[in-house]
Amino acid sequence: MSIRHGHKAYYDFVKFPRGFNKTGDFTLKEADLLTHFGHTLVALEQRQLQPLNSEELHFVDVVSGLTEPQTLLEKAWLKYIKLSRCHRAFHGLCGSKRSLSEPVVESDSDNDDYFGD
């Protein structure tokens, strides 16, 4: 791989406070790649760093939407972008198919005696 390593380990404590490898969203290899190359990839994406070789130039084309990702690093970065910058849907553990506009019907049962009424 000829993309430059970052000058230090990359972490996103805002979106992934426990680290990339503890979220369950990334494989161990993807988390490792994001940690080692993240600073370089951010700089390339934001045009703060000029591509030095064809692999870095291809990465810039991928994040610009001009071409499809080919390497695991490019795919991991696109996954990171999707998970960190796009709205995530929240799915609660309990759900109901009942519409909010439907009235709640309480039944008359013998449970009133339980509460001492």
UniProtKB/TrEMBL annotation:
Pfam families: DUF413
Superkingdom, natural source: Bacteria
Family that this chain belongs to: Belongs to the MaoP family.
Name of the protein in question: Macrodomain Ori protein
